[in-house]
Write a structure and sequence with these properties.
This protein has about 160 residues and is mainly alpha-helical. It is built from six helices and two strands; from the N terminus they run ααααβααβ.
């Protein structure tokens, strides 16, 4: 009989890693979905191909959700507690903080390429006109980073916004 591989015995570490991985992966998937919509909207990618690729990203998002948050969630937890529990590290800090910086009508519904974006999956968690900060797992790693492109700056090119 084969020996089982060594695993992390600390369930809180495992859950924190899963929550961080889900938050990071979902943000990256949303950015990719928006980019595919933009490419289709500008004619640089066939619309059917863009939607097909976004559909695959939706399935990847579902697998990411099942393999991270669902895998570490207490099965007996009431459904209404999932959002808060999924966004809270074991030390009580938020995994991600998301803030709307533009009115919803000014971003989601007026973006010229919006009709080329599949509205399901990661983009539902990262709507246009919001910014998202994902806290590191270790609070000691939580240091401000100057990306040289502050979203609220008049000089911002929006590069680091979703």
């Amino acid at each position: 009989m084969a020996n089982r591989p060594a695993v992390n015995p600390n369930v809180h570490d495992i859950a924190d890693q899963a929550k961080h991985g889900y938050a990071t992966g979902t943000k990256l998937l949303a950015e990719t979905q928006y980019r595919l919509g933009e490419l289709a909207g500008t004619g640089r990618l066939d619309l059917d191909e863009s939607i097909s690729m976004q559909t695959q990203l939706f399935y990847i998002w579902g697998a990411l959700y099942a393999g991270t948050l669902c895998a570490v969630r207490d099965e007996d937890a009431d459904d209404c507690t999932w959002d808060e529990a999924d966004n809270t590290y074991s030390d009580g800090r938020h995994v991600r903080i998301q803030i709307r910086i533009e009115p919803e009508a000014a971003s989601d519904f007026t973006w010229e390429h919006n009709r080329f974006v599949l509205g399901d999956g990661a983009v539902a968690e990262h709507p246009l006109g919001t910014i998202c900060y994902i806290a590191p797992i270790n609070p000691h790693d939580d240091q401000p980073v100057d990306l040289g492109d502050e979203a609220d700056s008049a000089d911002s090119d929006g590069e680091h916004e979703i």
